[in-house]
Amino acid sequence: MSGKKVIVIGSGFAGLSAASFMAKEGWDVTVIEKHKTPGGRARQLKEGGFTFDMGPSFYWMPDVFDRYFQQFEKKTSDYYILQRLDPSYRVYWEKGYTDIPADFEQLKNVFESFEPGSSEKLEQYLTGAAYKYEAGMKRLVYKPGRSITEFMDWKTVSGVFKLQVFSSIKKHIAKYFTHPKLRQLMEFPVLFLGALPQDTPALYSLMNYADIKGGTWYPEGGIYSVVLGMHKLAEELGIKFQFEEEVTAIKVNGSAIKTVLTDKNIYSVDVVISGADYQFTETRLLPEECRSYSPAYWNKKVMAPSCLLYYVGLNKKLKNPVHHSLFFDVPFEKHGNEIYKTPQWPSKPLFYVSIPSITDKEASPDGCESIVFLIPVAAGLEDDSDELREKYFTMIAKRMEDRIGESILDSVVYKKTFSVSDFVSAYNSFRGNAYGLANTLRQTALFRPSCRSRKVKNLFYAGQLTVPGPGVPPSLISGEVTAKQVVKYFH
């Protein structure tokens, strides 16, 4: 047992992960969380008999979660029950829809129905994507990204061209598929996580492998069951949690933190790991002379989208729903540009719908439906008014009504919205982003903000603004990577 004290700020996936790995190494760990419950952006909303995951709703990369719990000699099934969804999701087009089956042979038939010969192309594409998934996870994702020398082993150098870090996923997909709908299906995983396909490295075809081969799963009780599982494991490891307590300042003496101040206590520390928003920690909690990055640095960063979210309860059951649906019934290019190139509220947005009550009876009262609507929007947008939110809800609900052939608006009995300004107030999110930094080449690996402060030797960072990137599995990995860096320097 080291007996050394570490404070972890925030109990999102990255904070819970970092805290648990530190406890495993024998550290005295305290997690400070401003909200009443753990989870950060993955909190749960329960009201009027309806239950919603407030943040992530796709459970991809089950192997990452399995690996996480295995490192504590536990199994995922010790904490929650998983069910593979079939179809994985549904895509609505301008006319009709396509279900994406869990079975690979059935999926190949779907591809053939759009473009003869495309099932063979899909096999070839996924062979390369599988390599990127395996090699990318081993050689890039689980590394702290603090020096180019980390990537100088022969396997990584010799495989860099196969990893396709320097070409775009848009061009890569276009080499295999010509039908516009197939291209959209393959581009979808990167769209919602951070950049236009033409600006995202082809390395991220590993997301297609995660989608198609890894599958889309549902943890019984929702993604919040994963949070509860991680929190339970953390408590079993002896970690202390301080809920409804907010860090107000980090006090630095020389080049090291001595104390952490909250609205309730003063803590003496050996190390701090911030799982809170990186930019907020730097600009609001640290003295100016201790900040690693300037305002100009942050303002140049390309952000992944924010979201306009609606948590909706209906007083009826829908006739033919699936758990996850993507509405690609309008052209993406215009909406994509309105997120990334000319940031503005979208004119005709694509959107995503999750209906957990289809899979989970506990998600809504009997005879009712719980629905989450999500519109990706540019980070940093202002004029986030109730009128604007209502306008967009009516717009997308009517489009959904048109596509599914039944009414929604006249059956709404519960509705709560959440958007850019809420991400700022609830999570101190830089520019109200929902997902972190975009997955562009210039923001990959060592080009991301460092997981260790450049100026404060015992301050470390975990989460979506540092390595490896946005999404739930990367956040789990981020906590592990950062904890290993702490142990390396403070063993």
Class by alpha and beta content: alpha/beta
- CATH T-level topology of the largest domain: FAD/NAD(P)-binding domain
Overall shape: it is globular
Spans of at least 5 consecutive residues with low confidence: none
- CATH architecture assignment of the largest domain: 3-Layer(bba) Sandwich
**Rg on CA atoms, Å:** 22 Å
With helices defined by DSSP (H or I, 4 residues minimum), what is the helix count? 15
> How would you name the oligomeric state of the polypeptide chains in this document?
single chain
* Count of discrete structural domains: 3
Strand order of the largest sheet: 7-6-15-16-17-14-18
Average of pLDDT: 94
The CATH class designation of the largest domain is Alpha Beta
Helix content: 25-40%
Strand count, sense and barrel status of the largest sheet are:
7 strands, mixed
* Strand content range: 15-25%
In total, the number of strands is 19
For the record, give the distance between the C-alpha atoms at the N and C termini, rounded to a whole number.
Answer: 11 Å
Classified in CATH, the superfamily of the largest domain is FAD/NAD(P)-binding domain
Characterization of the model:
The protein is of the alpha/beta class and about 500 residues long. About 35% of the residues lie in helices and about 20% in strands. It has 3 domains: about 5-80 and about 220-300 and about 440-490, 3-Layer(bba) Sandwich (FAD/NAD(P)-binding domain); about 105-215, no CATH class; about 305-425, no CATH class. The chain contains 15 helices and 19 strands. The strands form 5 sheets. A 7-stranded mixed β-sheet has the order 7-6-15-16-17-14-18. It has a 5-stranded parallel β-sheet with strand order 9-2-1-13-19, with helices on one face. A hairpin with a 2-residue loop joins strand 10 and strand 11. The chain is globular and about 65 Å long.
